[in-house]
Amino acid sequence: MNAEQRWRPAKLCIHLAVIYCLLLTSGCAEFVPTPIGANEQIGIPTRAAVVFFVDGVDPLTWERLLSEGRLPSVQRIFIENGCQAKHAVGSIHSVTYANSVSLITGLFPGHHGILGNPWFDRQELCLHDYRSPLTFRRVNNDFTAPTIFDTLEDGLTVSVQAHTRRGVSIAYDNKIAAGLDWCFGEFSRVDARVGRSVGRIARRARREGRWPEIIWCYFPGVDEIGHRYGSESRQYEEELLVVDNAIGTFIADLEEQKLANRTCLALVSDHGHVPFASNRRADLISQLQNVTELRICTSEISGRTQQHRERALGRYDAIALDGSSRHLTLFLRGKSGWRERPSYEEVMNSLTPLFSDAGEWPLQGVCLIATPVCQGKVDIVTPAGAATIERQVINGEKLYRITPSDDCARLMLYLGYENQTDTQPVLPGKWLHSREWLRFTAATPYPDLVVQLIELFDSPNAGEVVFFADAGWSLRGNYNGGHGSICARDLTVPLYFAGAGIEEGSAIPAARTVDLVPTLLDILHNVKDKRTMQPTDGVSLLPTLAP
Predict the structure, then answer these.
(1) CA distance 481 to 277
(2) Which of 38, 148, 401, 462 has the most Cβ atoms closer than 10 angstroms to its Cβ?
């Protein structure tokens, strides 16, 4: 390498630094929110909505900061003057891209097909991986389910900083400023800038001659800081304060536009965030390789063509994909190659060495192993015993049950189903509706497990085996925090509504984040004929929210 070649990276860094400084000092990306005048010819929807999507909110840290009075905007707007879901549950798998698609489609990951930040495509023999600056928006091309923006296609829709937004009319990404902030680790600037976007939206509304029906605001910084420092760190707390202030700024600017009385507000997260202790790190892949005879691929699948990739994968029996350090999905090769899924018996034969030592739980840091038996049937194994989860459809309605295979009382205690009351049916072996399972399990250590595990494995993109991390454990990587398991701290999220059409001080006992889309569509009164709506896994919460 000559002197000129060695100098090029340094020159690039200098140029980026200069551009970054100019952006910080010029204020060229800021727009002062001047009120829309009454005489302006701008169409104002009867109802509009703003969604604040905060990535990766740890429920324990969130509740503590609220109790300490350190989130004043959320306290004033959503707690005192809005409606809170007491127990809101995200979707399994509890990772960003699976849930960001669920939030805009109202479907579980097993029904829209994006099952992780990376996922394995058996037909193309490749990974779809959204974890790099060059690939993170490709998620919008990898699912076909209609989004809320598709449904509102006749109206104006806006997303701010959101990577998952297929069908939106206008996307404000702040590409240069946000990209440089991210590069320099200034995540707070990215989140704060989202809160100052009303002025820019108002300017566009004047050009379009109408105000947006929905504005979707995404705050990415909290999740990134949670991975780097842990969700009990000072840095994580400070970022939540930044987001609280940004939300307050956005709503204050919205009030300047004289539109607050027509706008419904929603605040939601995609998943929780679990801090890792230094003594709770398990290299699950090494454990599997040591116990089984599986040759596991853990690296990028190489090869430009399917034939090249097929040859490269020929030396492996399994592919392991990490789910933000909190679950591991194992894809196994079928008898005739990777395009064929192995039978349930073949999967069980591959796992047999794990359970050769009777009575000894084989995997450190793992709380549950799930394997699909067939459509609508999943086997689970835990340290407290095994069970089968099943689904049946009667007159168009789905019913679910869990049937322990050995020590029923021990397994029910492990899952948190032991506190039977006169109003709660005996859960083992009893068929219940989806919302009944949600209501009975939302406050347990593994909320909504029975329903969502079945729905997860509906997708052809699901693996053959999923290993879920126990509370506080990391299964791979060197991060200080993560998410992706079935534990309450991974799945429990904030879900609030406030503003126009929302009863102040009301509460929802239990909800799912897939309920957001049908609820917003009901609030916006946009769907003229509900029979033409695409079905969702969520339900409208409006009957509970409305005064």
Answers:
(1) 9
(2) 148
Distance set, CA 402 to CA 392, 434, 469, 487 (Å):
12, 13, 21, 18
Token pair for residue 355? Answer: 């359970």
Phi, psi of 470 (to 5 degrees): -75, 170
* Per-residue model confidence as pLDDT tens digits over 175-191: 899 989 999 999 999 99
Question: What pLDDT digit, counting tens, does each position of 277-295 carry?
Answer: 889 999 999 999 989 989 9
Using omega within 30 degrees of 0 as the cis cutoff, is the peptide bond preceding 93 cis? Answer: yes
Query: How far is 142 from 162, CA to CA, in rounded Å?
Result: 16
Statement: residue 397 has pLDDT above 70: yes
Cα distances (Å, whole numbers) of residue 323 to 163, 299, 320, 379, 474: 19, 14, 10, 20, 10
Tokens of residue 110, six digits: 């097993």
| pLDDT at 22 exceeding the cut of 70 | no
Number of other residues whose CB lies within 10 A of the CB of residue 542: 18
Output Rg (C-alpha) for the chain, integer angstroms.
24
Residue pair 89/511 in contact (Cβ under 8 Å)? The answer is yes
**Cβ-proximal residues to 40 (8 Å cutoff; 6+ apart), any chain:** 206
CB atoms within 10 A of CB 14: 10
Classify 537 as helix, strand or coil: coil
User: Cβ-count burial of 519 within 10 angstroms (0-12 exposed, 13-18 middle, 19+ buried)?
Assistant: buried
Angle between helices 434-441 and 449-456 (to 10 degrees): 130
- The label of the residue with tokens 């085996």 reads 465
Q: Which residues contact 536 (CB under 8 A, 6 or more apart)?
A: 105, 106, 107, 514, 517, 518
Report the alpha-carbon distance of residue 105 to residue 480 in Å, rounded. Answer: 31
Segments of 161-298 assigned E as strands: 170-172, 214-219, 263-268, 274-275, 296-297
Q: Which of 169, 248, 460 has its CA nearest to residue 339? A: 460
SS3 385: strand
Closest CA to 53 of 247, 228, 183, 201: 247
For CA atoms 321, 377, 441, 412, give the dihedral sign.
negative
Instruction: Collect all residues with Cβ–Cβ distance below 8 Å to 400 and sequence separation of at least 6.
Output: 389, 390, 391, 431, 432, 433, 434, 437, 450, 451, 454
Alpha helix (H) ranges present in 492-534?
516-524
Instruction: Sort strands 506-512 and 82-89 into parallel, antiparallel or unpaired.
Output: parallel
At CB < 8 A and 24+ separation, what contacts does 296-303 make?
Answer: 296/320, 296/330, 300/127, 301/125, 301/126, 301/127
Q: Which structure tokens are listed for 387?
A: 């069970």
